[in-house]
Every structure is written in C-alpha cells, then in structure tokens.
Amino acid sequence: MTKVINKSKVAAALVGMFAVAGSASVAAQDVSTLQNEEAKIHAADVRSQTKIDSLYEQSQELLYEYRAVVDEYENLKVYNDHVQRLVDDQNASLASLQRQIDGIEETKQGVVPLMYKMIDSLEQFVNLDIPIHKERRLARVERLRDVMENANVTTSEQFRQITEAYQAEMDYGSGLIAYEGKLSFEGEEISVDFFHLGRAALMAQSLDLANGWIYNKETNEWDALDDAYLGDLTKAIRMARKQTAPDLIKLPIFAAERAE
Questions:
Q1: Are 123 and 160 found together in one domain?
Q2: 180 in a domain, yes or no?
Q3: pTM of structure
Q4: How far apart are alpha carbons 86 and 184 in whole angstroms?
Q5: Per mean pLDDT, which of 14-18, 67-71, 255-259 is the most reliable?
Q6: Coiled-coil segments, which residues (predicted)?
C-alpha cells in the first residue's frame, strides 16, 4: 500500500515538473515571439521613417521646383508683357508708316510735275547766264532728264539730285574761280585760262599771257580786253588758284542795266 502511494507521489511530482517545464517553455516562446514582433515593429518603424524622410526630401525638392517654376513664370510674364508692348509699338509705327506711304503716293502727283519744271527752269537759266562751264552745266541738265526717266531711281533721289544741281549753280555765283578751257574768237579756238568773279564778270587770258578777253553780257560775245588789264587779270587768275596772296586788282565790270 505504501509503495502505491509513493509511486503516486512520484508520478504527481513528475507531472508537476513537466507542467512547470511546459509553462517555462511556453513563457520562453512568448518572450521570443514578443521580441521578434518588437524587432519587426522596430524595423517597420525604421522603414517608415526612411520612407517619410524620403517623401519629405521629395516634397522639398518639389517645393523648390514649384517656386522656381513660379519665379520663371513671373519672369516670363514680365518679359511677355514687355514684348507685347514692343509689338504694339511696332504695329503702331507700321500703321503710321503705311499712312505716310499712302500720303507719298499723293505727294508724288504734285512733286513730279514740279521737278520737271525745275529742270526746265534750270536749263533756261544756264542758257541765259554767262557761259561759265556752259557745256558741263547743260550736260548736268541732260543727266537730270535721264534720271527722271529711270524707273530704278526713287522720287526722293531724283529730287535730291535736282536740288544739288541748283546748289552747284549757286556756287558759280560766289568767289574767284579759274579754270582752263577753249575760247572761240573770230573763228579761232584758243587755249585760255578762264576767270570769273562770281557772275559779275567772265574773262579769259591766253596761256602766253599776251591777250585777254571779256564776255559782253549785252551782245553775248567775247570782246578783246585792253592790255592795261592783262597784268591784273594774270594776278586774279593766280589768286583764284591760291598761287599768290590776295591783293587789290583792277578789272573791268559791266554795269548792271537800269530798270525802266
């Protein structure tokens, strides 16, 4: 009987030991499981934080890009407004220019006849004037007529050349001028030095200085010059060519006709 009881006690002790061992094993497993879960949670937290940091960096980059785009947009808007004002101004200038061009066509209708009258008047003046470079001046008139018939020459250029011709005619009326040329006198061609004091007098002297002539405005002919004036005429020619210093000279001048 006693042996049976002892065996029961031993069995109960063994069952208790196994129960405690089982409980310890279960507890160890629970702790390990918790540790693993905690490690997983920690790793997930790390991954989440890393992702958050990455998203934050991306958001900052996007913010910087957004601000750069906004700044570029503002700059482009200012530039576009500036360009638009330039375009508007150019369009206004083009419109004004077109109005001027339209007006030029109307102006031409009055300017062209005027230019032909100016050329005719210039030719008439040269023919009536004392014969200073007469051939050259008449040749200029003919060139002007050719220019008027040249379609490649603009109206403004035609007018410019006509006004230049008038200016050249004005220059003949001032200063002392001397030049070489040929004089027709009593059927003979003579090489001479021409001299004119504006349009007050036109004279000529042979190259050997032995003879002189003066143009008579009343007869439109050359008259022989008195020998007393030859020395002063020679000096006048040299003064015109700046070959001698200016000095007083005595030359004949036809008096202006008195108006009746």
A1: yes
A2: yes
A3: 0.54
A4: 68
A5: 67-71
A6: 80-107
CA 114 to chain centre: 32
Q: What is the token pair recorded at 112?
A: 């062209």
- Closest among 173, 197, 200 to 256, alpha carbons compared: 200
Which tokens belong to 78?
Answer: 């200012």
pLDDT band at residue 79 under the 50/70/90 scheme: confident
**What is the SS3 assignment for 31?**
helix
Task: Please give the average per-residue pLDDT across 3-11, as a whole number.
Answer: 51
- Give dist(CA 4, CA 2) in Å, integer: 5
Bridging pattern class, strands 221-224 and 188-197: unpaired
Residue 149 has pLDDT above 60, yes or no: yes
Backbone phi and psi for residue 116, each to the nearest 5 degrees, phi listed first: -65, -40
CA distances for 130 relative to 150, 168, 252, angstroms: 31, 15, 15
Do 122 and 139 reside in the same domain of the chain? yes
- pLDDT number for residue 105: 66
Residue 259 pLDDT: 38
Phi (first) and psi of residue 248, to 5 degrees: -75, 135
- Token output for 241: 């060519």
Asked if 181 and 218 sit in the same domain, the reply is yes
Tokens representing 91 are 């369009």
What pLDDT is stored for residue 13 in this prediction? 52
Structural domain span for residue 147:
108-171
Beta pairing class for 201-206 and 221-224: unpaired
The pLDDT value given to residue 36: 78
